[in-house]
C-alpha cells in the first residue's frame, strides 16, 4: 500500500512535470510568434528582390520596335507568400503601357517597345515593380512595399523616307511663312483703314485667325517631326484663298479711301467757294438756279460727315459724278469771269479778314456791316478808303491791331488807344500785294483808335471741315523662324528640345540615401524601401529606381539627361563598384566606417553625373545616410550638391539604449562613428556647410529615457546651426518604441515630412 502510494505520488509529480514542460513550451511558442517573430522580422528582411538589368539603352530607326528582356527573383521568409505588381510606363505621357501581377519566386520578363514619337530624339520608359509579403498567422509581416525599377531609353533616328520629306519641306515651308508674314502686314493695314469707319467690322477676321492657327500648327508639327501634318497644311487651298482675299480686300479699301480723300478735297473746295459761286450764277440767269446746287452740296457734305461704314462711303462716292458735272459747267462757262473775280476777290480779302477773322472781337455796328458789305459787293480796292472815313467811328482798336500789328509795324504806346506808326509795309496777298502808301497816317491812326457802339453780329462764311481718310501707319512682320527641328524629348506630357550638357542643368538628379541597416545580412534594398514611396510620388521626377548591383552594361554619357526632367534614384553606399571588361560590377560591403561610405558615395554621385550630364545633384538622406552625406561634403567639397535634406540624422550622435544595442544589430565600425562622443563626429561638427542649401527634419513624440525624440535619435541631436531646421510631431507604436524613426518617411503616415522634402527640392 505504501509502495502504491509512493508510485501514485511519483506519477502525479511526473504528470505535473510534463504539464509544466508543455506549458513552458507553449509559452515559448507564443512568445516566439508574438515578440520573437516581430523582432526577427524587424531585424531581418520580409522580402529580398533581385531585378536585373536595371537600365536599358536602345538605338532605333523610324518606327522599329525593340525587345526588352529582364528577370525578377523574389525570396520571402519561410511560410510567407508575396505578390508583385508590374507597370511599364511611358515617361513622356505618364501612360501605362503594360501591367501585370505575379507571385512566382522567379520570372523571366519579355516585352516589346516601339517609339512613341516621330523624328530624332529619345523616348524613355520606366518599368516599376512593387512587391509585398502577405500577412498570415504564421507570417507576421508589416506588408510594407519593396521597390524595384528599370529605366529604358529608346534613342530615335530618322528613316530615309523621313529624311526625304524633311528635305522637301525645307524649301516649301519658308515661302509659306513669308506669305503669312505678308498677310499679317496686309491685315494690320486693313484693320487701320477699317478703324476709320466706326460702324464697320472686319469681314476677314475668321480667315485671318485660321491662317495664324495654321502657321502655329505647322511650326508645332515641324518641331515635333510630324512632317505629314506639315504637308496637310501646305496643301490646303483654303489658306491660299484666305491670303488672296485679304490682299484683295486691302486693295479695294485703299482705292475706296483714296477716292474718298479726293472727293473730300473737292467738297471742301466747293464749300469754301459757295459765296463766289452764288454771285456767278446770279450774273448768268440763263443757267440753272444756284439754290438747287447749294442744297445738293450741303446735303452731300452732311452725308460725308456721317460716313461710318464702307457702305456709307460707297453711297457718297456715287454722288461724285454730279459734282464733276457742276465743276465742268462752272469751268467751261465762267472760266474767264471767274478768274477775273478770283483775282479781285483775293485782293479785297485782306480787308475782309481784318474785320471778321478774330471771332471773339467780331462785334460791329450795323453801319460798319453795311459799309463792309457795300465794299465787298463793289469789288473795288479804291472803295476801301471809305472804311477809313472819320464818319465811320465804330471799329475797335483791338480788332485791327491784334491781327495786323506786325504787318503794319504799329506799336501801342499807352492805354489811351493811340499808336505811333514808324513805317508802313505792303501786305502780301494771293495775287500780289496791297500798297497802303496812299493812306494817310491820320486815317490809319483813327482806324485803330475808335470805340464801337450798338453791336451787330456779322457771321463770316467758314470752309467746311471734313475728316481725312489718310492712313499713315506702316507694319512690318518678320517671317517666323524656321530651323531644322531639334531632337524632341518628352516628360509627363511636356515635350521640348532634348537637353544637352549645356542645357537643363536646373533639372538636377535627386538622390535618395538610405540609413543604417538593422542587420549586416540585409540587402541594400531593405534600407532603400523607406524611400520608395517618396520616390514614386514626387511630381515631375522620373523614377530611375535604384542604381543596380550586379553586372550591367555601361550607359553612354548623358543618356539619362536628355529628357527635360530630373530623375530620382536610390543610391547605396553599401555597394562597391568596379569596371570589369567594360561593364560595371557591384558588390555589397557594409562593415566599414562612415568615411569609407562617403568615398563610395562620391563614386556613385560621379556616376550619376556622368549618366545625366548634370553638374549638381540634390540629396535626400535618412538617419546615418545624412552623416555619410555630410562626410562626403567634407571630403569632396560642396560644388556637386545643390540641396541636401537630412531626415532623422543623428548629427550629434546616438545615446542611451540605442547606443548600447548598436553593436548587436549592426556593424561595430559604424557604431564607433555614430556614438555621441566619437572622434568622427567631433571632427565633422567642427565645420559648417554654407554653399549647400541644407535642411534637417526631426521627429518628436517618443519618450527616450526622459528625453524627446523619434525612438532612435534624440530630438536635440538633429538640428544644425547652418541649416534650415524643421520639426514634425508623431508617436512610436511598436513594441520596441522605435518605429517613428522610419515611419516619419512615409507620406501617408506623416505627410508633413513629404511636404517639407518637396518644398526644399523646389518640386
List the helices and strands and how they pair.
Elements: H1 2-43, E1 47-52, E2 55-61, E3 66-76, E4 81-90, E5 95-102, E6 106-113, E7 121-134, E8 146-157, H2 160-194, H3 205-223, H4 227-235, H5 237-272, H6 274-283, H7 290-305, H8 310-317, H9 320-356, E9 363-365, H10 366-378, H11 397-408, E10 410-412, E11 419-421, E12 427-429, E13 432-434, H12 441-447, E14 455-457, E15 488-491, E16 494-497, E17 510-513, H13 524-537, E18 542-546, E19 552-553, E20 567-571, E21 575-580, E22 583-588, H14 594-612, E23 617-622, H15 624-636, E24 641-647, H16 656-665, H17 668-674, H18 679-684, E25 693-700, E26 702-704, E27 707-709, E28 724-729, H19 740-743, H20 751-760
Parallel strand pairs: 2-8, 7-15, 17-20, 17-23, 18-20, 23-24, 24-25, 25-28
Antiparallel strand pairs: 1-3, 3-6, 4-5, 4-7, 7-8, 9-14, 10-11, 12-13, 15-16, 19-22, 21-22, 26-27
Characterise this structure.
There is one protein chain. By secondary structure, the chain is an alpha/beta fold. Helices cover 43% and strands 21% of the residues. Strands 2, 4, 5, 7, 8, 15 and 16 form a 7-stranded mixed β-sheet that branches. The longest helix has 42 residues, at 2-43. The chain is elongated and about 155 Å long. It starts with a helix and ends with a helix.
The assigned structural class equals: alpha/beta
Radius of gyration using CA atoms only = 50 Å
Note the main sheet.
7 strands, mixed
Q: What does the oligomeric state look like here? A: single chain
- Low-pLDDT stretches are 31-43, 347-461, 519-523, 577-588
**Tell me, what's the shape?**
elongated
How much helix, percentage-wise, in residues? 40-55%
